[in-house]
Amino acid sequence: GAGVSQSPSNKVTEKGKDVELRCDPISGHTALYWYRQSLGQGLEFLIYFQGNSAPDKSGLPSDRFSAERTGGSVSTLTIQRTQQEDSAVYLCASSLGGQRTDTQYFGPGTRLTVL
Amino acid sequence: GNSVTQMEGPVTLSEEAFLTINCTYTATGYPSLFWYVQYPGEGLQLLLKATKADDKGSNKGFEATYRKETTSFHLEKGSVQVSDSAVYFCAHLETGANNLFFGTGTRLTVIP
Question: How far is CA B37 from the centre of its chain?
Answer without folding.
Answer: 8
